[in-house]
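Thread: quick sanity check before group meeting

JM: Hey all, I'm pulling together slides for Thursday and realized we never actually wrote out the predicted structure for the chain we discussed last week. Dropping the sequence here so it's in one place. If anyone has concerns about the input, flag it before I start.
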Amino acid sequence: MNEAATMILGDWVQQATTRLERAGVDSPRLDAQVLAAHALGKDRTYVLTHPEHEVLLGVLEPMLIRREAREPLAYIVGQREFYGRMFQVSPDVLVPRPDTEILVERALLAVSHNRQWTGSILDIGTGSGAIAVTLACELPMADVTAVDISGRALRIAMSNAARHEAHINFVRSDLYEHLPANYFDLVVSNPPYVSHADDLEPDVREYEPSLALYADANGLAFYRRLAAETPQVLVCRALMVEIGLGQRDDVIGIFSEYGWRCLDCVSDLSGIPRVLTFETDTDLS
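JM (edit): ok, ran it. Output follows.
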């Protein structure tokens, strides 16, 4: 392809939409518009209102080919919005999803959205840092710690913390192995919970980090670790976890084996149970 070749933006978006639709992309037109906006250094509104703009095919075609191959859009453009903030992402971390915003909302509800709350929060398996950074920004007086076993993921999380001026203590650790503190008011986690037998979309299966996706025991192994190991090394007042489709009863059962009580269950917009809150001897009231 002639790298200097151009096309009218509106025509390119239409052609790209057709190609992405054929590739099985769920939101082909939206993705085409986002790719165009990224290439132009503009927002999507500009793409919608300037269809006459000329674009360089040499810039857009490589990105379109990647999306046709079902590489996640967030990896191609290098970022994803979460709870109103933009987060850097790479194949070293999961792409932040709207479902996880429910975990953030539940955590904020636990402290009644009190921005002066001075308690301590631990985010286990922080990945991109979306949960920890959001909570640190929404609760600037809180003491937030984030752990991840992946050094590469922590580098992304630290970059996102710096981007949003969030003060977070980052620790590379397999669960609590290297954690310096032993008390937290609130522990939150979006752990690996996908079964190896689950049939995932190629966007997820072929590109997102397996370490952050899959867990043994039909996706339940990490919940058992949390339920069993937390009381051995931590004192915490409440623990909140994101769960997958159909896992509510199993996860509640696992935690109950280790003396946890399920305080509540919050569903997503589709009515799927998504966040469970557990407590031990005290609550957050």
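AS: nice. The radius of gyration is 21 Å. The chain has two domains: 6-69, 93-279.
JM: adding both to the slides.
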